[in-house]
Write a structure and sequence with these properties.
- By secondary structure, the protein is mostly helical.
- Among the domains are: 43 residues, no CATH class; 202 residues, Orthogonal Bundle (MetI-like fold), CATH 1.10.3720.10.
- The chain contains 15 helices and five strands.
- Strands 4-3-5 form a three-stranded antiparallel beta sheet, with no helix packed on it.
- 30% of the residues are buried.
Length: 384
């Protein structure tokens, strides 16, 4: 059988003698299947997480959404290579310069002022394109804060050859704003989700495992803490402190863990009554060893399923706060700010349409991934 991986040493002789696996070198009989990569051909891999991954990959919509989402995230992380107002590398009068990492004054390239070089200046462009000189630019020659002072149309300008998606009301390139704003939203959502997962798992694990008074006190605390007006607190702190991404992350993290803690608590309440926990106690393991080694790994299903939906909520929260002017500091690329500009400039349809499209695609991909994860981790799903 050419193409099938030999599995010498992997076949359990009693299992083979029992008819469940063919003996090595023995002819196949009816009902038996060849072995491929350690598993029967067409069989589902052993182990709950490997089976869940197998089911997730079979969901073409969910798996395709994951691939596309990862590709978009990688593209946004390399935004400086895709959209930048500085050349990646240039050659001028026999010397090589790296403007992307170093700041060069205009006098370096024949200008009159000892100021940072504006590479969109027609004079600088002409100097860099002279004989023997060359410059390698990113596909989109604008950064998220670049203002083209030599634009031919007033701002906001519609899509054109120079600005593929147009410009906003300040003259900044919309494609660059969306690319960098998407990166800020994703990184913020990942950070907020990670903090919420850590706090939610810790709180839910303590409540569910110890129960009794500990659970009762935690539940009363969560009820009181959850009743606090989150939006009012954000408005108050935004007035007292200077706006920053860190401040926003801390304030939202204070309230973002409670939803997950309820799911983890329910899993721990169920799992702590099972026999393997009693066996671990009988072996003399401490409570924290039992929680970390035994109960937590068997309670992660709601956590994993919760992640894409938590990221969607974080992106929506950041976008909403930016729209209201309570989000990231001015100058930071933001999808919410672009939506606010679209509201204030109804005629500039390209601002609202492009931003809305980015949000819809992002949230749709996360929702499809979440649905696929939920189905993959559902024990009632067959492995057929």
């Amino acid at each position: 059988m050419s193409g099938w991986t030999p599995v010498s040493g992997l076949i359990d002789p009693p299992a083979a003698a029992d008819g469940r696996l063919p003996l090595e070198g023995a002819p196949l009989v009816d009902g038996q299947s060849p072995i491929h990569d350690g598993f029967a051909a067409g069989a589902v891999p052993a182990g709950p997480w490997r089976r869940a991954w197998h089911r997730f990959k079979r969901n073409r919509l969910g798996f395709g959404s994951l691939v596309l989402f990862v590709a978009l995230v990688v593209l946004s992380l390399a935004a400086e290579l895709v959209s930048n107002d500085r050349p990646l590398v240039l050659r001028y009068e026999g010397q090589t310069y790296w403007p992307m990492w170093n700041e060069y004054p205009e006098t370096t390239f024949g200008g009159d002022f000892n100021a940072p070089t504006d590479y969109l200046d027609p004079f600088i462009t002409e100097r860099l394109s002279a004989d023997g000189n060359w410059a390698l630019f990113a596909p989109n020659r604008y950064g998220h804060n670049t203002i083209n002072y030599f634009a031919q149309e007033p701002n906001p300008a519609p899509p054109s050859a120079a600005n593929w998606l147009g410009t906003d009301d300040r003259g900044r390139d919309l494609l660059a704003q969306l690319l960098y704003g998407f990166r800020v939203s994703i990184l913020f959502a990942l950070a907020l989700t990670a903090i919420g997962v850590v706090l939610g798992v810790m709180a839910g694990a303590i409540q569910g495992f110890f129960g009794g008074r500990v659970d009762l006190l935690f539940q009363r605390f969560i009820e009181i803490w959850g009743s606090m007006p989150e939006l009012y607190l954000l408005i108050i702190f935004s007035a007292v402190f200077a706006p920053s991404v860190a401040l926003l992350l801390i304030l939202l993290s204070l309230f973002g863990w409670m939803g997950l803690s309820d799911y983890v608590r329910a899993e721990f309440l169920r799992n702590r009554q099972l026999d393997y926990v009693r066996a671990a106690r009988a072996m003399g393991l401490s409570n924290w060893q039992i929680i970390w080694r035994h109960v937590l790994p068997n309670s992660l299903t709601p956590v994993v399923t919760f992640l894409p939906f938590r990221m969607s909520a974080a992106i929506l929260a950041l976008t909403s706060l930016d729209f209201l002017g309570l989000g990231v500091p001015p100058g930071t690329p933001s999808l919410g700010e672009l939506l606010s500009q679209g509201k204030n400039n109804i005629d500039a349809w390209w601002i609202s349409l492009s931003t809305f499209a980015v949000l819809v695609v992002t949230l749709l991909l996360l929702t499809l991934m979440g649905d696929a994860l939920r189905d993959a981790l559902d024990p009632r799903k067959a492995d057929a």
